[in-house]
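Much of what follows relies on a compact textual record of a protein's fold. An example makes this concrete, so a full record is given next.
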Amino acid sequence: IGDPRIRHLPGGRCVSLVHKGPYEEIHRSWARVMGYVQEKGWTATLPYREIYLKGPGMKVQVTRNLRRNGR
């Protein structure tokens, strides 16, 4: 692991999805997100942002508050 870096990332439209399931099946979530982006006629730009609540091999338990989008 290298040193942390600070970069400015421009704002813009965002698509988010909470993957709940085995890490080995995360490609299905990515396919769903990218299909949605394509359906809307948008273009995904790098860098992508990912937030891991738990890493590979760990049981993932997503809380109700995270899934409800702040409501």
